Amino acid sequence: MKTRFLKWCLMAVSLSVIPLASAYAADCVHKVGGLAPLSAPGSVVGGEAMRDAMLLAERDINAAGGVLGCDLEVVITDTEGLPEKATAMMEKLITQDGVVAVGGGYHSSVGVASKDVANARGIPVVFAETWNDTITGDKQKYIFRIAPLSSWASGVIWQFAAQAPGVKKVAIVTENTDYGIPAAKECEVGLGSKGISSVTFGVDIGTQDFAGIVERVKAENPDYIIVLLTGEAGFNFTQQAADAGTGPQDIMFHANQAGLESKAWWENVPDGRLAFMARIGVPETMYSASALKFANDYKAKTGKTGVESFALEAYDSIGILAQAINEAGSTNGNAIVNALENISYDGVLGRIYFPYGSKKDPSADGKGNEWWHQWPDVAITMVQYQKEGEPSNTMTIVYPESYKTGEPEYVD
Amino acid sequence: MEFAPIFWWTTLWLLVWGIVGSIGTRRIYLAKDLDTSNAVLMGSLVGASLGPIGLLFLWLKTPEASKRLIILPSLLTVGIIMTAFALADPQNNCVSNSSFVLSQITNGLIIGIIYGLMALGLTLIFSILGVVSFSHGEFYMIGGMITYYVTVVWFPGVSPVVGILIACLATFILGAVFERLFLTPMYDGRIERPVEYGILVTFGLAFTLMYFVQAVAGSNPVKAKRFFDFPRIRFPSKEDPWLIKTSRGNMELFDTISISNPRFIAAVISILVLLGLLYFLYKTWTGKALRAVSQDREAAAIAGINPHRMNMLAFAMGGMIAALSGATLVQAFSWLPHVGLIPAMRSFVIVVLGGLGSLPGAFFGGIIIGLVEAAGTGCVPDPQKASSYIPAYGMIVLTLTLLLRPTGLMGRRFASGTHGKL
Fold first, then answer.
1. Which of A124, A369, B121, B349 has the CA that lies 20 to 30 A from B174?
2. Does A284 touch chain B (CB under 8 A)?
3. Nearest residue to B350 (alpha-carbon basis) of B364, B336, B340, B338
4. DSSP tag of B383
């Protein structure tokens, strides 16, 4: 009788401990930072898309078992697109929130400023959408990037402009930031190599009234305009240029990729038909199964009709960190870096890996320092809104040939 | 710049003789026991425009600093700068392209009128309450946001006039309620430092409004549709419309001046509001009472005007005027919760330039800043820098003006300063 009673007691205790143990496991959390511009003067359109994508990544990773048996928590922080805010936020993420790695990042100036903080504190960062070459060009141990290099992305922009019919002079309107200045310079040099002259107008981030600049651009009589302004500044310039008769329907016009958020684009730039934009990632028709699933989830969450490239990049920046932590078997910064240098991650952008790092210097293949910890296979296409009000996922891909879905519609 | 030394040597000449004129004239007027209030400004302008000969004449005759002796040398100085610039950079669009120049002047005037309207609200508040409202930019933002929500989200297709009127009404009530709740402690001695209190409490309102809108409406840029499309006009003839040619979004005058629809509509509304405001201030009893309080609160109270009621009216009207500027521009610019920061800073520059508390000063200050910004953006030879320095152009004019005339262009020496108290 006594033995039976003890057995029952033991069973009861065991049964009560099992849920307690599982609850204990679910309670542990590993935090990862997520940088996004959620206030002006940053590109809020881009920031909100990245935030939504990173939170979807958090949900999917936790549904698949989390990291190291614990839940993953993405701590989203607002950089406002400002370097000084970015360094402060990176400090806060590391010292107060206790993140073990950081993903996201939209503005280059944010990447340039905050990378030193993370590197000094030994926290790995996978930048999602910061193009400036120096971000990886400093060959810092803890800094990785899955966005294209500025020199590379700008190359696609100017090469497309150079092959457009009758282009002899290009006006470049750029923001005075770590993204805009080098990108404009690369376009100038590239166009110059093709015998095309260019003139660059620099403006401060957050500029609203472009009337004077539009008149100057008009006075230059360009054949093609390249706008390297992020966020609402790009919208403001494009629509004000259109109002003044120099918009996308009057002259060949490259607009910033913030316009890939089609609802915001058509509301802010109602005369934006025929604008060209650069898009990162393969077209939706070529999406993998995981990318299609993400695209459907993202559209359901946001109510959008398409997925912006920066949303794809943000999702993968968190996903690749989660895989690296699992493969490292630890949240130690050095272990994560080691895992990232050896990683092969099947993300929504494609298979992501980093061929150059501490084991192989970029110079071994005759490449510049900017290829350090840089994913080399980013797909960049030029797309065009050919119908008024059309969603970005049906935009015509006009360049390069390998991805082309239609002919570009040029303005006479 | 092709012949840069011409421009820089001329600028140096102007500066040197301007400084000599300002210092020398003040000393000579003081020695002769004459009024020196405008002598520094007059001396510097005469020195800059006419050099040593003009100064010799001025110092010998020591005439009274009349408007003529200030305006004529000012125009001459501007003329010298323009001539030197034209000689130094003959290929510049501002020299060789008359169509460009006219377009820039028109753009400067249009945006200047809108700036002026917004600054008018700020100076109205200051002239009555003696408070610089740091929430002015947020009233501007709220005005645009309400107009957007009324015309695009809540009642799509409703006339923009309805949206503007609702924005005006809402901000007027908001301003009145805020003044009653938070600014009245300034008037009855409950606050030891009313100036600092006024600044802090309006700062608080600014942040509250900004983040409230961000929480409710989000931070994505929004924009109202063009209020009205231009009708298709070809005048004098369809074949040769050299006088006026319009499309839905643009108007071209004399085949040279290009004006975009949203800015034109915003400027027209601003002018109408300005005229209405002038009528209100100068022809109605309430308007005269407001001006009386701004000039002398005690005398106004003795005459039967309730200064406390005027405080409320001034703050509510000031905020409403800012909101009206925003309501007219939400069709021209993309709108965000932070959109008011730059216009608010510009308004501060304008009211200080025009003279704190001066209503005409705010209006003319706005036009001056609009024109100077247009000139800077259009004429600075390096396109990379021309548009980067937009905020700096106004600051240069402000600094020079304050150096020579600390009260601003049309300011009074003791404009308000009673902070709403009797």
1. B349
2. no
3. B364
4. H
Predicted confidence (pLDDT) per residue in B266-289, tens digit: 999 999 998 999 899 999 999 999
Question: What is the DSSP-derived secondary structure letter of residue B150?
Answer: I
Give this complex's ipTM: 0.85
A202, B260: Cβ pair inside 8 Å? no
Partner residue opposite A219 with nearest CB, options B93, B220, B226: B93
User: A-B interface: how many C-beta pairs under 8 angstroms?
Assistant: 124
Which of A41, A201, A245 has its CB closest to that of B250? Answer: A245
> B160: helix, coil or strand?
helix
Contact status of A232 with chain B (Cβ, < 8 Å) = yes
Question: What confidence tens digit (pLDDT) does each residue in A205-262 have?
Answer: 778 889 889 989 998 999 999 999 988 899 999 999 998 889 999 999 999 988 888 8
Q: Contact B419/B195 with Cβ under 8 angstroms?
A: yes
Contact call for A243 and B103, based on CB within 8 A: no
Given a cut of 80, whether residue B419 has pLDDT beyond it is no
- As a whole number of angstroms, the distance between CA A72 and CA A60 comes to 10
B12 burial type by CB count under 10 A (0-12 exposed, 13-18 middle, 19+ buried)? exposed
Backbone angle region of A281, left / alpha / beta, with phi > 0 → left and psi within -120 to 50 → alpha = left
- List phi, psi (to 5°) of B246: -125, 150
Which one, of B78, B27, B89, lies nearest residue B48 by Cα?
Answer: B78
CB proximity A388 to B under 8 Å: no
Q: Which of A129, A123, A127, A159 has the alpha carbon at shortest distance from A141?
A: A123
Check residue A243 and give its pLDDT.
Answer: 87
- Between chains, do A244 and B260 touch, taking CB under 8 Å as contact? yes
Q: What number of other Cβ atoms are within 10 A of residue B61's Cβ?
A: 7
Tell me what pLDDT residue A9 has: 54
Q: Considering CB atoms only, which of A44, A201, A264 is closest to B384? A: A201
* Type and span of the H or E element at A224: strand A224-228
The answer, yes or no, to whether residue B50 has pLDDT greater than 50, is yes
Distance CA B147, CA A410 (A): 36
* CA–CA gap between residue B34 and residue B40 (Å, rounded): 12
- Note whether B381 and B322 are within 8 A (CB): no
Here the tokens at position A406 are: 């239609």
Q: Encoding tokens for residue B242?
A: 């050299």
Asked if residue A108 lies in contact with residue A131, where contact means CB atoms within 8 angstroms, the answer is yes
Smallest CA-to-CA distance from A34 within A338, A287, A310 is with A310
Q: What pLDDT is stored for residue A5 in this prediction?
A: 57
| Chain B residues touching residue A268 (CB < 8 angstroms) | 221-223, 334
What's the confidence (pLDDT) of residue B422? Answer: 53
**Helix/strand/coil percentages in chain A, nearest 5:** 50, 15, 35
B-chain residues within 8 Å CB-CB of A267?
152, 222-223
Q: Are the C-beta atoms of A244 and B260 separated by less than 8 Å?
A: yes
For chain A, how big is the Rg over CA atoms in Å? 23
Mean pLDDT by 10 residues, chain A (412 residues): 55 50 62 92 87 96 93 95 94 95 94 95 95 92 93 91 95 90 93 96 86 90 94 91 90 92 91 93 82 92 87 95 95 95 92 93 92 91 93 89 90 80
CA distance B257 to B277: 29
Q: In what order do the strands lie in the sheet with A143-145?
A: A71-78, A29-36, A101-104, A125-127, A143-145
One DSSP character per residue, B75-138 reads HHHHHHHHHHHHHH-TTSHHHH-HHHHHHHHHHHHHHHHHHHHHHHHHHHHHHHH----TTHHH
Residues facing A125 on adjacent strands: A102, A143
Q: Is the pTM of this model over 0.90?
A: no
